[in-house]
Design goal:
Elements lengths: L3 H25 L17 H17 L17 H11 L10 H14 L2 H13 L4 E4 L15 E5 L2 E8 L10 E7 L10 E7 L5 E6 L8 E12 L3 E2 L5 H19 L8 H10 L6 H29 L7 H24 L15 H8 L10 H12 L14 H5 L2
């Protein structure tokens, strides 16, 4: 049970956050528009990047950036409870922070967990100020769900490492200065043991990006190529050969962020779809009513699971495999919401007047949600994690787990 003084402090923090948001958001145009599609930052959208940086800088100046991060690195030295409370208050607004989701949700926590003192001093404060944007470079064309099967190589050369290889589906790399990259540094040991994580400056010679055009017309993902990219040994993150442990830390934070801590801001909540059905005179349709009830139940389950994970965090428990459950259920809700919204919108979901504000909201949402089944681990990977680490079931056979990686690939 929380101490009454703690509860009072938390409520005072909530009121301070609410006042700041109510005073600041209208002045900067951070007001949420009902029915607006969630927008990701496309290649070349420099104005959006500037708005994101400006918003993060204002948060930092007001004392709302890095709420649970140590004060000695630029954070506020509070707790995840305060971060959760701030997120709850911010739901009513549309803070332009898309560019910082990965850096603050995944990269920063990883650096704080496994980084050296010098790395924390160098990278955390600029991240919190909005000066440097980060991405995560794990997936490869031949090693998507099997992250440990990656082939990007890093070879030591004196006091540096030479990186060669390719990453794919890297969100936001086109507007990032830095990333955390996972590479193979020892092919003569089993695949999980021969990995090392690095901090990579994406402006280094030899780094090249190629945007990936998606089905919705956007270019939010990238292929990233490394050709003899030199990385200082001081930018090894978590220790040589300990990349898998560092990556696990990153992915745990990602799943909790995607499943529990973030709001359901990439799809339409059941209340919005009920209003849409009412506007279109569809509430008398029995099948529509049943679909709306089913969606409301899914949304309720997502909320309750999120509250459970949040409650554990607020009691001081580190993110664990239960985040996989929340993320998996949330993906199911998002898919159902997008499909039902598209159906209810009727012709407006497929065609809209040129220049109509958010005219493509239903199509955009429907085309976006499939990516959620991959982000943070595919649904199939998450089901394996739940079976093994939550239900205690036997692991699936992995005949290659203890075989030196070179024997699996011949190189």
């Amino acid at each position: 049970m929380n101490d009454p003084d703690d509860a009072g402090d938390l409520e005072r923090f909530r009121l301070r956050a609410r006042r700041w948001l109510q005073e600041t958001a209208p002045a900067h145009g951070w007001l949420r528009r009902p029915g607006a599609a969630r927008r990701r930052i496309a290649v070349g959208d420099h104005d959006a990047v500037r708005r994101n940086r400006a918003c993060q800088e204002l948060l930092f100046e007001a004392g709302f950036a890095g709420l649970s991060w140590p004060a000695e690195y630029g954070g506020q030295g509070l707790g995840l409870r305060e971060q959760i409370v701030f997120n709850e208050e911010a739901r009513a607004f549309d803070l332009p922070l898309t560019a910082f989701i990965i850096g603050l949700g995944m990269c920063g926590p990883t650096i704080l967990a496994v980084g050296t003192e010098e790395q924390k001093q160098r990278y955390i404060l600029p991240m919190l100020r909005g000066e440097e944007i980060w991405c995560q470079l794990f997936s490869e064309p031949g090693a998507g769900s099997d992250v440990a099967g990656l082939r990007t190589r890093a070879v030591r050369d004196g006091d540096a490492w030479v990186l060669n290889g390719q990453k794919v589906w890297t969100s936001g790399a086109h507007h990032c200065e830095f990333g955390i990259v996972l590479a193979r540094t020892d092919p003569d040991v089993p695949k999980h043991k021969g990995l090392t994580m690095f901090v990579v400056d994406l402006r280094t010679p030899g780094v090249s990006l190629r945007p990936i055009r998606q089905i919705d017309g956007g270019e939010h993902f990238n292929e990233v190529f490394f050709d003899d990219v030199r990385i200082p040994d001081t930018d090894v993150l978590g220790g040589e050969g300990k990349g898998w442990q560092a990556a696990t830390t990153t992915l745990m934070n990602e799943r909790v962020s995607l499943g529990a801590v973030r709001t359901l801001d990439d799809v339409h909540p059941s209340a919005a779809l009920i209003d849409l059905a009412r506007e279109r005179g569809l509430l008398a349709d029995e099948s529509v009513r049943q679909n709306l009830v089913d969606l409301w139940m899914k949304e309720t389950v997502v909320g309750l699971l999120g509250e459970r994970v949040t409650a554990g965090i607020m009691r001081g428990r580190a993110p664990g495999p239960e985040g996989s459950i929340t993320k998996l259920v949330r993906t199911g809700f998002s898919t159902a919401s997008a499909e039902l919204g598209f159906r209810l919108a009727g012709p407006a979901a497929a065609a809209w007047p040129e220049g109509a504000a958010d005219g493509d909201t239903w199509a955009n949402t429907l085309l976006f949600v499939p990516s959620l089944t991959v982000a943070g681990g595919t649904d199939e990977v998450l089901k394996n994690i739940i079976g093994e680490r939550v239900l205690g079931l036997d692991k699936e056979p992995q005949v290659d787990r203890d075989v030196p990686f070179r024997e699996l690939t011949g190189r």
